[in-house]
Amino acid sequence: MSKELIDNKLSLLPDLPGCYIMKDKNDHIIYIGKAKNLKNRVRSYFRGTHEGKTERLVQDIEDFETIITGSDKEALLLEVTLIQKHQPKYNIRLKRGTSYPYLKITNEKDPKLIITSDVLKDGGHYFGPYPDVYAASETQQLIMKIYPLRKCNGHQKRACLYYHIGQCIGPCDHEVPKEEYDQQIRKIRSFLNGNVHDIKRDLKQKMDEAAEEMNYERAAEFRDQIAYIEKTVEKQSIISNNFMPRDFFNYYMDKGWISIQVFFVRQATLIKRDATMFPCYGPPEEELMSFILQYYNNGNNIMPSEIYVPEAVDTDMLSQAIEAKVVNPKQGRKKELLDLTGKNSEMALKEKFRLIEMNQAKTTGAIQELSEAMGLPYIERIESFDHSNIQGSNPVSAMVSFKDGKPDKNNYRKYKIKTVVGSNEAATTQEVIRRRYSRLLKEGKPLPDLILMDGGKVQVNAAVDVLVNELGLDIPVAGMVKDNKHRTASLIFGEVLETVVLNPRSQAFHLVQRIQEEVHRFAITFHRNVRSKNSFTSRLDDVEGVGPKTRTKILRHFKSMKRLKEAELAEITKLGISETVAERIKETLANYQG
User: Fold this and answer.
1) Is this structure's pTM higher than 0.70?
2) In the Cβ-directed half-sphere of 85, how many Cα atoms lie within 13 Å?
3) For 196-217, how does the pLDDT look when each residue is reduced to its tens digit (9 = 90+)?
4) Strand order in the sheet with 102-105
5) Nearest to 223 by CA among 205, 196, 236
6) Burial label, 86 (beta-carbon count in 10 A; 0-12, 13-18, 19+)
7) Are 280 and 253 within 8 A, CB to CB?
């Protein structure tokens, strides 16, 4: 769409709440947002300057649509619905599912207490999340001992052992009234909400009764259950004395990115957190609201009793949208925990930026250092060659490519030397340089900014000779020199091949070291494969009666000379090879050591 048409559409925008839908040149929806005032918000994308991810989004926008809503709340709800439907590439995409375990009382005639990671709208009662499966399992086992439900997977013809030891309510023994199940479920919910006083009192009574009946083993079980409650539930009250489930959301915004953290508080204990970061294209408090709404509409996160958010968030609108209590704490322990959530958000985002800076120092920063040391413009692409042979046999060469300081493995190349017999560094270098760059010229593909040879003056001079005198190319060529311990030492470069001194602690030095190690690894690996294959095939070629088809058949079946040598004669003849030829193969390989 032309700028004139965009300007005309912008002039018609209303001063009303609603959603806006951004599209690219192919009419694909790429971003969906909400606004209290559509005119002001949408215009902001086409006015002034932007940076980072927002700049990329704006560059992709070719058209937009708007949908007016009756209120800010309706805009928030519609935004999430549209995002989930269209999945625009610039919007938040929450993962479905969760790694957190929950306890669930199933919605059945005879309900069970199970552990699950899938939260479904199936009428079941969910409790959690728990920090790990072990914690959920321990709590499940305790509850089943104190307030048991159905234990087995199906109705049996008679009561099982668990019923007799008090860990199953006994639907296989008798019809259990719904009222009895409801009573158990109420007690379980009370326990998980922190009301442990009644449970401890009941257990103490059962323990005393068992002791009076001289059932000391049973009494010991009740004693251990009381101890578990005291060590786990009661001793974990680090947030408050209120065991109500709560979630704390906070954010930190910088350089076009928003970092959001969620703290889960269950049974008065901070048990887990979620963290995420993504590009932010609108006011951060509104991005947080959208995130929270999607978070609970995603299907795998249970709505807690209370949700705590920072002051900038519209708690009334969010409460109505998610139909839950949303609070902005002003003081006390809840405010401290909300601030802690925000501090973690800040630390996570700053760490991300530090890692990016460190990575840039190793890559583009190293390239900048290397370019300055060699007196060259920015070296975007480097190609490096290494040769490999053993006593002149099976000579090969390999080339690795680095772009902006990072390996570009799609452009790695392998070369079997065709024109050189024996070990001849200069001739081998000339062949691979000729093959590589004559092909790039023929195909019209970009040339590197620097060629690094894993060798000294012989290889550098041979490469320059082909580039300049045969191909008419002016590509800088340097040699990577090693010390007497075969470690990266320096570069040689220039018309008279002077030493380029690199600080061994510099990023440029470490980059050259990585390139040298990578091209050597690539060449050695290729040479080993070629040598192994050629050794196998050359021995077979010496056997009378083994032609190309038979050799291929043997290679595919046995894979190696060792397996072929160890094979029985019958296994070879099964491939359609005559017994006479099979015997010749065995004789030829008789002296093979491997």
Assistant:
1) no
2) 9
3) 777 788 889 989 998 888 888 8
4) 113-116, 102-105, 125-127
5) 205
6) middle
7) yes
